[in-house]
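Usage

Read records sequentially. Each one opens with the input sequence:
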Amino acid sequence: MPRKKNIPKGDQHWKDEWAYQQRTGEDKKQLERAKARRAIDKAGIDRKGKDVDHKKPLENGGTNDLSNLRVVDSSKNQSRNLHKKGEKK
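and closes with the structure output:
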């Protein structure tokens, strides 16, 4: 998308990012889950082959604090969240 001359670079970047998120179907919950994964990585916890789970789900008012996060087997987490085996959400 060409940059308009009268829009500062920062504003255009924000608009491009927002348009990308709309096209790919990203929502606030997905961004919050990504933030949780980054927090676990920053804490130095190895999560290879595992999922980051919120003890109290974001939908029910949970947060991304380390006290609300845990690392569990991906199969256990997905079965707890009613996913079928091999299904990607």
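Summary fields computed downstream for this record:
- The longest helix spans residues 9-24.
- Residues 9-80 form one domain.
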